[in-house]
Amino acid sequence: MTSLTSSLVRGAVTSPFRRAGRPGATLPADRLTRPAAPAAPGPLAAYRRICDFPATGPLPLTYPHVLAFPLAMRLMTGRGFPLPVVGLVHTWIEITARRAVRDTEELALTVYAQALTPHRRGTEVTMATEARVSGELVWESRSGYLSRHATKAAAAPKEEAPELPASAEWRLPGDLGRRYGAVSGDRNPIHLHPLTARLFGFPRAIAHGMWTVARCLAEAEGRPDERAGELRTVRADFRAPVLLPTTVTYAADPAGNAFALRSASGRVHLTGTVTRAL
Hints:
Number of strands: 10
Shape: globular
């Protein structure tokens, strides 16, 4: 059993004994690390294919997050973590690449829990990840995960998504969650089959949020404007799950700095912004 699978099993077992919103809850001070190592060529190539990144070139902006996800799961399912991992909802992610990272460079990874904050729908934890090459910080990210529970906070007004012109249309197959799970190691049951997804309140399996971000970035990187530099930062907000199978539309502003993913009905699943190297 892989470390990520064992973490998912441990999370399923321990989650019923953890109560989100408990007064005085604190985060563990642990920093989990992975020693420096290059990305394995086979899994990286498979990741590039399923997300439609170029077959060669720098590491995709999202890939260090995939490499570090087993560490994050181990921390979130550990004894000192205050929230139940089952039911956690990935709400947003920010990534900064301080420079392009070659796929042959040896990345040392560190993951830690940064903040625990009240949210109008429950409690949100911010997880931080850092990647270093020979001690140099080359990449970092912050992710928000929401544990939903009753609160006394007033409902916030709905934030309108930007109106962006359609740029591409993608047909997403029903087995996309299983295929991406095999590549990323994230085999959360909500992504795998309609039956397992229904156990968690979804009518069908849903696409991985990190696949949707990666696929949007692959599209943004493929802009024909030769003056566009490499992507350096992204902020993405997950607004609604993508039920599989489906057809979605990728939309972006003419400058390529903002993007969105929406369904045929107009429902917005994801919004984001990027910056590029000059």
